[in-house]
C-alpha cells in the first residue's frame, strides 16, 4: 500500500503547464472585481448609499427578488419532485426544457414573456380582457421576469437533493399507512431542506441581479420597475461613481450568498 507521505508527495506535484493557465484564469476573474474596489469613491459611499434613488432601487430589488423566490418555491419544488421522482414520459426532455432559461439570453426571455403575457400575447390578452390584468411594465412584471430566469437554479438544487435522499424513509412511511402528501410534507421535504434552502438562496441572488428580461418585459420606470441592475445601467451614463457604489452593493450580496453556501458545498465535496 502507498504510504500517506507518498500520497501527499504525489498530490503535491503541480505541473507548470497547468499552474500557469490556472493563475491567469484566477486573475482574469479577480482583477475586475479588485478594480471595482480600488476605483470605488469610498469617501462618498455612505452618502450615496443613503440617497433616495439608491434606497428606492434597493427596496424594489429586495421586494421583487423575495417575491420571485416565493413564486419559484411554490412552483419549483413540485416541478423538481416531478423530475426526480415522477414516472412521466420524456422526463429527460422536460429536464432540458426546464434548464433552458439558464443558457437562454435574458433579453430573449423577456421577448418571450412579452409574446405570451403582453396585452396582445397568447395568454396576456385574456388576462387583460377578462380580469383587467396587465403584467408588462409593472412591478408584478419584474417579479415574473425574475422568477422566469431564476427558477431553474431552485429546480436543479432541489432535484439533486431529492435524488440523493434515501427513499427508504418514504417507503417506511408508506408501509405505515401515510398518504403520499403526508409523506412528502413530513418525510421528503424535511430530508431535502438543505437543498431547498441552497436553491432558494441561489434563486434569490439570481433574481436580484436580473437585468435583460426585466428591462425587456417590465421596462425601466423609477420607483416601479427600476431595480438595482437597471439603476447601475442608468447611473453609468450620467454618474459613474453612483454606478460603482450600486455595483459594490450587488457584489457584497453575491459574496454573502457564496459565504452562506460555502459550508454546504464543502460538505458535498467531502
TrEMBL record:
Provide the transmembrane region boundaries: 16-38, 58-84, 96-117, 137-158, 187-207, 242-261
Asked whether the keyword Membrane is assigned, the reply is: yes
Per the record's keyword annotation, is Lyase included, yes or no?
A: no
Q: Origin organism of this chain?
A: Nocardia puris
Q: Which segments constitute the ABC transmembrane type-1 domain? A: 58-261
Q: Name one GO molecular function term.
A: molybdate ion transmembrane transporter activity
**Where this protein primarily resides, as one coarse class?**
membrane
Give the UniProt family note. Answer: Belongs to the binding-protein-dependent transport system permease family. CysTW subfamily.
Which keywords are on file for this protein?
Cell membrane, Membrane, Molybdenum, Transmembrane, Transmembrane helix, Transport
Cite the PROSITE patterns for this sequence: ABC_TM1
Full protein name: Molybdenum transport system permease
Q: Which Pfam families does this UniProt record tie to the protein?
A: BPD_transp_1 (PF00528)
**Subcellular location as annotated:** Cell membrane
Instruction: Tell me what topology the record assigns in the membrane.
Output: Multi-pass membrane protein
Cite a GO CC annotation.
Answer: plasma membrane
Q: What does this protein do?
A: Part of the binding-protein-dependent transport system for molybdenum; probably responsible for the translocation of the substrate across the membrane.
Q: Which CDD domains match?
A: TM_PBP2
